[in-house]
Amino acid sequence: MFRRRVHEGARADDRYETDDRYDAGPGSERRARMRPWSPAQIVALVIGAAAVVMGIAGLAKTGLPLNHLDRPYHDVLGFRHSPLLGLAEIGFGVLLIISGVVTGGARWLMALLGVVQAVFGVIVLVDVAPQRIHHWLGVGDPYGWLSVIVGAFLVLAALFLPEITPARRESRRHHVAT
Questions:
Q1: Which DSSP category does 78 fall into?
Q2: Residue 118 belongs to domain spanning
Q3: pTM: predicted TM-score of the whole model, two decimal places
Q4: What Å distances lie between residue 72 and 80, 85, 166, CA to CA?
Q5: Which has the higher per-residue pLDDT, 97 or 27?
Q6: Quick check: helix, strand or coil at residue 169?
Q7: Is residue 20 part of a domain?
Q8: Is the preceding omega at residue 142 within 30 degrees of 0, hence cis?
Q9: CA 20 to 30 Å from 21, out of 12, 62, 69, 149?
């Protein structure tokens, strides 16, 4: 964890090691590592925040009846919502926000959430289980297309946006004699 170094100018028989945790004296150098970041983090934060806002708006309109999470249906920003869909959107958004705040971006989580969102959109569009999906979530084709587009965008952003590592800066410690 801590690098040990041998002081310069010491004879071979009386060398001693110091720990970098302690100040090595005037003129010692310390390297500051800057953490990498990616534009994909910004994409994850924006889409995650939008999903949380949409889920909260859906819950504000539908309420949260714990005995009937599949009803009532209300339109939120042009899409039908049930309370269960609002909860799912909030969970999705929170996970995306978490993937966006991790240093360097948790691209694997962002890509996984994008794949899940896109597959959900395809399931809604193809009507694999129309009675269950429409009954429990209240979604239709417009929400299916939104899910496919958002999911594909998340996957592409996670895979192709670069990771930017800032250049290292060296700082010198200056000691003032007291």
A1: T
A2: 39-160
A3: 0.71
A4: 10, 11, 50
A5: 97
A6: strand
A7: no
A8: no
A9: 12
